[in-house]
Write a structure and sequence with these properties.
Blueprint lengths: L1 H18 L7 E10 L5 E11 L4 H11 L4 E4 L6 E5 L2 E2 L5 E6 L2 E2 L14 E7 L3
Length: 129
Amino acid sequence: MKKKRGAWLLLCLVLCAALGGCAQREPAGTVQVTVYGKDGALMLEQVTVTLYDRFSVFDALIKACGAAEIEIYARGSGIYAVVTEIGGLREADGAVWSFTVNGGEASANPGRVRPQDGDEIVFSYGIFE
């Protein structure tokens, strides 16, 4: 019985190492995340978030808001994630959540955009044209 357990443990360790599941991810830098709500009210002052490989703007928002215990809701997941609510402020009457990276408007949803080390990400709530 002990030999079987040992063999299973060894197999699990080999698979884990082969798939990279046991390896710790190395930080790829940091980004700054700020959130402005209705009428430009500051909801989350600039928070530094550690960036990892394949991190998205949405992942950075989740980490920043999680650290401040601010709830986030989204439609879709992964590269299709679209923010629908932050801190109780949800899409309504044409108002939506939008974001910029280094002051430039995003060309895709936050689940698809990959920030770089040093980027400044700002989420804002309002009606945008």
